[in-house]
Amino acid sequence: MIKVLHPGFYTTIQDLGRKDYQHLGVSVSGSMDLEASRIANAILGNDEKCAALEITMVGPKLEFTCDTAISITGANLSPNLNGIKINNYIAINVKKGDILSFDRLNMGFRSYLAISGGFQTEFVLNSRSMYKGLTSTFKLQKDDILKIENQTSSSNKYASIKANISYLDNHIIEVFKGPEFENLNAIQIATLFNKEFTISKENNRMAYQLNELVVNNFEDIITSLVLPGTVQLTPSGKLIILMRDCQTTGGYPRVLQLSEASINVLAQKFTGNSIVFDLKD
User: Fold this and answer.
1) How far apart are CA 103 and CA 80, in angstroms?
2) 216 alpha carbon, distance to own chain's centre
3) CA 199, CA 217: separation in Å to the nearest integer?
4) CA nearest to 208, candidates 241, 247, 159, 178
5) 137-194, pLDDT tens digit by residue?
């Protein structure tokens, strides 16, 4: 078990999400940066479907009540074990009574903590991903007890990976044409691809809004399907990029669609960060 001494700013349990329930109006959810979550599990020899902690901006303080092994990937939040600095992207054996905590955010925005065997928390619709209104809680709370499998040792205790973390600083967002892209005029297209956009304070697991506007003269569209990575253009000219917890339908024109890799890149951005769109065929 793991006891939550402090939950951090916004810490949740996430896995690969729920991909077969959108027709019922259920969001996909899952780790915002899926690649970082997959790597964290791979370092420990876990299945990629195993649930991990998604840690946003400020890390939690956790007490282990049994032996196990952990790995941390994604953002660098200065993790330390019993007050001693530990590195990301390496397997670390943990003993009963050890305390894991985090300090300063150095790079990125979301970090992933995998544990040997994965977190054995609430399982709803084939996923352990927390989601408000679907799971009993949507983020960690102080004094929560997280169920894990007891591990007396790790055969991967020296496992590590030389990961390419340059994407944490990447500001280029690869996109494809969305269903309503062809309705854009030349000025709107030039604005989308020649302008730098900044992340507004309205950013979370559901969507990222951008500060800069694109003139919108579109006619209303019929409510249609959307998915993580869909870029909507609102009547006021605001761009909204839908993320993992997004709704399943929307009524705004879908002008662009992020690549899977670019959703991971964007997941590591926060208020004030700049991005540019790069159109792919």
Assistant:
1) 8
2) 29
3) 23
4) 241
5) 999 999 999 999 766 555 555 566 778 889 999 999 999 999 999 999 999 999 999 9
